[in-house]
Write a structure and sequence with these properties.
This protein has ten helices and seven strands. The protein is of the alpha/beta class and 273 residues long. The protein folds into two domains: 37 residues, no CATH class; 225 residues, Vaccinia Virus protein VP39 (Rossmann fold), CATH 3.40.50.150. Strands 3-2-1-4-5-7-6 form a seven-stranded mixed β-sheet, with helices on both faces.
């Protein structure tokens, strides 16, 4: 009966009403994620999935990251949702925001791959002082060009596994360098790490430039880690038509998964979404 009512609530005639009523019922974290009850539901979905993956791997701590902080609205949501997921799952979650700070987009924007038709140097500048006043102890702001801050990250900061990564850096060159977080010296990631790419659905986007090119080149360069779409993400969701699901990907640690299979030949690697 409960399953039938849930299915009925997801039908188009009723789902809008159900979503409007749910916040008044103090829904749990899974319900909030399913019904997109968050200022950035894609962040909540990615962080929650990362925590579940961590528990499946018997890990107690993960790091979630936003590349391209700008005003900080996304980072503030990320730290709040990380806190909520931590309470619900028991997995400790550190939050990191990577950005150029007050400088905005880098001064050098390259050829067509960086979409100079869309972005300009200095776009999306940060008010660092204002943002830092709003950050909680769990959240760290890492300022500078990602070509420099990413290689240094695991040498100076966390030893937690990468859990969820949101990339909103606009430029191909910055997205390419941000994805270096998975291959930097000392990097550790979940077997299946959720990602969100913000700038892949504008009319000017194509696979020969921007974040889509960065993904393709990453896959060409790396045999042990591959980035692919998050398959089946729309299944059994009240609003499967949402565009955000097209932007959700997963980085798969093929080497790490293979080692598990060698250590535990009968281990199951399945994980419910």
């Amino acid at each position: 009966m409960k399953a039938m009512l849930r299915r009925l609530a997801m039908e188009p005639p009723f789902r809008i009403v159900a979503r409007a009523l749910l916040p008044h019922l103090r829904p749990d974290i899974d319900t909030r994620s399913l019904w997109e009850l968050s200022p950035r539901p894609h962040y909540l979905l990615g962080i929650l999935q990362a925590a579940r993956q961590a528990r499946a791997q018997n890990l107690s701590r993960i790091a979630v990251m936003e590349f391209g902080v700008a005003s900080g609205r996304g980072l503030l949501v990320m730290q709040d949702e990380a806190e909520a997921v931590e309470r619900a799952t028991g997995v400790t979650i550190d939050v990191y925001g990577f950005d150029m700070g007050a400088a905005g987009l880098p001064e050098f924007i390259g050829d067509y791959r960086d979409h100079p038709d869309a972005w300009r140097a200095g776009d999306f500048a940060m008010d660092e002082e204002k943002l830092r006043l709003l950050l909680k102890p769990r959240t760290s702001l890492i300022l500078g060009n990602v070509s420099e801050t990413v290689p240094a990250f695991f040498k100076t900061d966390t030893r937690a596994h990468i859990g969820f990564v949101a990339i909103d850096v606009d430029l191909y060159s910055s997205a390419r360098d941000a994805l270096g977080i998975f291959t930097a010296e000392g990097s550790r990631m979940l077997w299946n790490t959720p990602l969100y790419f913000d700038d892949i659905e504008f009319a000017f986007n194509h696979r020969w430039a921007g974040e889509l090119l960065a993904i393709n080149e990453f896959n060409e360069r790396n045999e042990g880690i591959k980035i692919d779409r998050w398959y089946g993400i729309r299944a059994d969701r009240p609003f499967p038509e949402r565009g955000m699901y097209d932007k959700m990907y997963v980085a798969h640690d093929l080497v790490g998964i293979s080692k598990v299979q060698l250590d535990r030949p009968n281990a199951s690697l399945s994980l419910a979404a």
